[in-house]
């Protein structure tokens, strides 16, 4: 599960809770409560986070997957596409985010996955035991040509969202985040007073 809020400046306190999945989930749920209006969708979102395993599952029946990666809070990272080696066409290929990961900002990941599946199925219509690699190469060439533009747009949108522009951009971003943090503290105080 993935959820993205750029709502805080670099917070060293986050590292203290990152080794405890239950605390991470609680932190995320608190952020959702603070930054979203009270409504049915917010409640559904909070319920979804209740489904996240809070500890390493002990029995395979409790967790149907082979591996478990504990939930963590992570900083947004930018990976330059030019630094990634391309794969060699073989009898295995990739579709969707496995082939061309995009940030959620533009909302195009699922669309490209469906287009990849359709392009691969069209390429495999010409399959024979002798030419399967050429079928896969045909798919990969079409997929990379189509997806590269949106991967770059998605990367640009993400960088634009999380990177301030110049000195004044940095001041504005930090002021907005400090104001947001201040308002969240007021929200917490009001909630505490309501409970008293």
TrEMBL record:
Record-annotated FAD-binding domain positions: 78-146
UniProt keywords, alphabetically: FAD, Flavoprotein, Monooxygenase, Oxidoreductase
Keyword Oxidoreductase on entry: yes
One function term, GO molecular function aspect: FAD binding
Pfam families assigned to the protein according to its UniProt record, in alphabetical order: FAD_binding_3
Taxonomic superkingdom: Eukaryota
InterPro entries named among the record's database cross-references: FAD-bd, FAD/NAD-bd_sf
TM region(s), chain numbering: none
PANTHER family xref list: FAD-BINDING DOMAIN-CONTAINING PROTEIN, MONOOXYGENASE, FAD-BINDING
Protein name: FAD-binding domain-containing protein
Organismal lineage: Eukaryota, Fungi, Fungi incertae sedis, Mucoromycota, Glomeromycotina
